[in-house]
Design a protein that fits this description.
The chain is α+β, with helices and mostly antiparallel strands. The chain folds into two domains: 11-167, no CATH class; 174-244, no CATH class. It is 24% helix and 30% strand. The chain contains six helices and ten strands. Strands 2-3-8-7-6-10-9 form a seven-stranded mixed beta barrel. Strand 1 and strand 2 (18-29) form a beta hairpin. Helix 2 packs antiparallel against helix 4 and helix 4 packs antiparallel against helix 6 (229-244). The longest helix is centred in the C-terminal third of the chain and has 16 residues, at 229-244. It is globular.
Length: 247
């Protein structure tokens, strides 16, 4: 049934509309052979398959029903971002070649932009090495039902429009980076390349002249719509700097 009152934790999504974000555990796999001719990207080495977990309770005590996904809007701009950040091209990690519901799960095939974005290369390594095991989806709830009584959930979303999908905790989590580096999933050169890219981004005239109060920034004209991206870049740069000191 429809609930006349939307959930109280609405946030602004990538296209400016209010919606929700939810973390979904995923089983990350290297693509199998593709008899159907699915696009694996050049050589297939930059592609990973993401299969979302079953319709389990999330940390909000809610369930997202897989059969309810409406995907047409996302298909028009199927980018894979870092932590829902859209304020600079550095946060674009790749694109979804496939996004569909299979067997009661949301399935995606993600092609990482490893040749042009060192952050994407690190994300690919961390997912491939099983150091990261979740994505976060941004969606607009269309129909839902509230739990209660004997229901194990407080709310179940039975129809929802997917707007965005993001990697979470990359690569600002220094522990994941350190473990990935130790295992060989991440190369030292990737960390150095990302550190160089961050330094160049932060040293642009826009970044140097950006006001610091209130987390305001102008790393690029787009960043003005996302005023805290500059601070996120600084935090990431510091994490990389500290990690590089010990390798």
């Amino acid at each position: 049934m429809n609930n006349p009152e939307p959930p109280s934790r609405l946030v602004t999504l990538s296209d400016g509309r209010p919606g929700l974000r939810g973390t979904m555990l995923v089983d990350v796999r290297e693509p199998a052979s593709s008899p159907g001719g699915e696009d694996l990207g050049e050589g297939g080495t930059d592609v990973l398959d993401f299969v979302s977990s079953d319709e389990t309770l999330d940390r909000y005590n809610e369930i997202i029903q897989a059969s309810g996904w409406k995907l047409s809007c996302y298909h028009r701009n199927p980018v894979f971002q870092n932590a829902h950040q859209y304020g600079d091209v550095i946060f674009t990690l790749g694109r979804a070649l496939i996004t569909e519901v299979r067997g009661g799960k949301l399935y995606q095939r993600i092609q990482f932009a490893i040749d042009v974005n060192p952050m994407a290369r690190i994300a690919h390594g961390l997912y491939g090495g099983k150091f990261l095991k979740a994505v976060s989806v941004g969606f607009i709830p269309l129909r839902w039902e509230d739990g209660g009584g004997r229901a194990a959930y407080s709310r179940k979303y039975i129809e929802q429009e997917l707007l965005e999908v993001s990697a979470v905790a990359i690569p600002a989590n220094p522990n994941a980076l350190a473990l990935g580096l130790k295992s060989g999933a991440v190369e030292k050169s990737d960390l150095r390349n990302l550190a160089d890219l961050l330094r160049l981004t932060l040293e642009t005239p826009h970044a140097r002249n950006a006001p610091r109060a209130g987390c305001q920034s102008a790393v690029s004209p787009i960043v003005n719509r996302h005023p805290c991206n500059h601070q996120r870049l600084i935090t990431l740069a510091r994490s990389l700097r500290d990690l590089l000191k010990h390798i």
